[in-house]
Amino acid sequence: MAKEITSRSENYSQWYNDIVIKAGLADHSAVRGCMVIKPYGYAIWEKIQRQLDDMFKATGHQNAYFPLFIPKSFFSKEASHVEGFAKECAIVTHYRLKNDPNGKGVIVDPDAKLEEELIVRPTSETIIWNTYRGWIQSYRDLPILINQWANVVRWEMRTRLFLRTAEFLWQEGHTAHATKEEALEETIKMVNVYAEFAQNWLGIPVIIGTKSESERFAGAVETYCIEALMQDGKALQAGTSHFLGQNFAKAFDVKFASKEGTLDYVWATSWGVSTRLMGALVMAHSDDNGLVLPPMLAPTQVVIIPIFRTDEELASITSKVNQIVAELKSKGISVQFDNRDNLKPGFKFAEYELKGYPVRIAIGPKDLEKGTVEVARRDNLTKEFVSQDGIANYVEQLLKDIQTNIFQRSLKFRELNTTKVDTYEEFKEKLDNPGGFILAHWDGTAETEEKIKEETKATIRCIPLDGEIEPGKCIITGKPSERRVIFARAY
RNA sequence: CGGGGUGUAGCGCAGCCCGGUUAGCGCAUCUGGUUUGGGACCAGAGGGUCGCAGGUUCGAAUCCUGCCACCCCGACCA
């Protein structure tokens, strides 16, 4: 069939592409590196957005919107920020087209050149801090706790649907504070929000940590992150929260009058997650039959498939299904009844497995006689007959179980694929088998990190926050190290 | 941006090397009928700028040049 997907063992990358495309999440577009997010994929993104947005509001943030375009000069104000993003910026140089005097089509009107070029935002720190300057005079104007949902553009050389696209959707929080302590607290608060979301909603266990200097956000003093492990043993950075210190306040001259009467620079944070989470969702849970979605994020949690021969049978099944649908909906469960008569049940089963619907209910003439339905769960592909009485309670609990099971399974996988090593030999060996997270001592220098990266492709994913203090020796230089850091090959 | 590959109907492919009538096949789609507890069957029908643009030729899906997109592998990144 046209819908068949490559198995993970055969070709993991192809498996991922197949799922994204064949489950209807996204497609390639006519523009290099840019994707079309299709309705089913966008519905998942909307659920992600809704939940995160609630969490942001609950922690005191408000949404706002800043421009897509940033004057080029803004970029040069924060040195490391420019350096970090300069290589992947899209630039607007003209503002008008005209008919090609030589024939067909249109050309850029050379007379319509912008005096100052505009950068299509790769992130919004600069335009936002330029704006905040006008909003902040005294400590009474602080803190400013703002988030924006937006698209950004980073001109990537090699792209992959959701994981790395030239344009992507995200949210970026940008906050301003009177004290360093408060900004640091905000940074950590938000990385914890991300971790909670990843674990309870995406069903993906994450490790919270800080980045090494070389992996840090351009312009940040400290970058906190959540790191997840994918089924192929590669790590995926799922979210970041940056303590920006006073770097942007200094670059954009944002000062405030303190309670004590001094004039101080403002402290800043920024934090974001992107449509990359969609990629994480696919790679963390799905199998060779297709997508596996956690119930908390599935656009539709339950699909009901009638098994029938005649119109009469369909009619009597339908009336029973209508009751079940009403019961499920009254519990806030999203449900879809697929009564198409041109497809066989088996086809539909495969279709909904591909799309990752968490629960499938099949109901046929025999069920009507016996007062049962067949309930199949997507996460472990098991099915059983369940009484129609109390079906809503049963499904409600089942959805919770599936959510838990998906998380536990990922957690177990991560545990099995996390290895402590004490020598470089062992490091290289474990990196290939089993792969995954490698916990090793590191002397804290960028040189050692770079050497390991060059030789093994593995990078420091993070210095885990809850990692135990355990003195040891760097696997490369033998210099003292106070704790293990997490290495992995990463997306 | 370097190396390798691909591009022919909605999807998957054959045809290309060795140019030559109306460009084929499977799936999907539409119509009719029989079907329906794990990807149904029969009959009929519709659907094509052969990725795009040039060139060679009496004639190009096929040969040549350029470009575009996608995939795999590198360098760069969320």
Measure the end-to-end span. Answer: 31 Å
Helical amount among residues, as a percent range?
A: 25-40%
| CATH class group of the largest domain | Alpha Beta
Which structural class fits the helix and strand makeup? alpha+beta
The neighbouring-strand order within the major sheet is: 3-9-10-16-13-12-11-24-27-23-22
User: How would you sum up the major sheet?
Assistant: 11 strands, mixed
DSSP E strands, number: 27
Q: CATH superfamily membership of the largest domain, which one?
A: Bira Bifunctional Protein, Domain 2
How many H/I helical runs?
14
Overall average residue pLDDT: 93
* CATH fold name of the largest domain: BirA Bifunctional Protein, domain 2
The CATH architecture of the largest domain is 2-Layer Sandwich
- The domain tally reads 3
Q: How much of the polypeptide forms β-strand, as a percent range?
A: 25-35%
Q: Which shape, going by the Cα principal axes? A: globular
Rg, Å, rounded: 26 Å
- The unreliable regions are none
Tell me what you see in this structure.
- The chain has 491 residues and is α+β, with helices and mostly antiparallel strands.
- It has 3 domains: 12-285, BirA Bifunctional Protein, domain 2; 302-398, Rossmann fold (3-Layer(aba) Sandwich); 419-488, C-terminal domain of ProRS (Translation Initiation Factor IF3, 2-Layer Sandwich).
- The protein is 35% helix and 27% strand.
- It has 14 helices and 27 strands.
- Helix 2 packs across helix 6.
- The chain is globular, with a radius of gyration of 26 Å.
- It starts with 11 loop residues before the first helix and ends with a strand.
- The model has no long low-confidence stretch (mean pLDDT 93).
- The structure holds one RNA strand of 78 nucleotides.
